[in-house]
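Module 6 notes. Inverse folding takes a fixed backbone as the condition and produces residue identities as the prediction. Think of it as a translation problem where the source language is geometry and the target language is the twenty amino acids. Below is one complete input and output pair. Work through it position by position during the lab.
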């Protein structure tokens, strides 16, 4: 059976930043990194979810 644990604070915050950038790019212009976030918005959502899922499954992340 897979043991789940809460993600570390850094993992959670990084996931929160990624999802925040993706959501903010829907309605705001973000200077410097904006075009990249808009171009790869779906991958920002996926990366945030995968990072959080890995943080729950792994004790070290």
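Target side of the pair, the amino acids:
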């Amino acid at each position: 059976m897979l043991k789940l644990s809460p993600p570390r604070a850094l993992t959670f915050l990084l996931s929160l930043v990624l999802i925040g950038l993706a959501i903010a790019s829907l309605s705001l212009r973000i200077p410097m990194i904006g075009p990249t976030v808009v171009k790869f918005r779906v991958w920002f959502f996926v990366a945030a979810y995968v990072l959080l899922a890995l943080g729950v499954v792994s004790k070290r992340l």
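Reference fact for the lab report: The chain has three helices and no strands.
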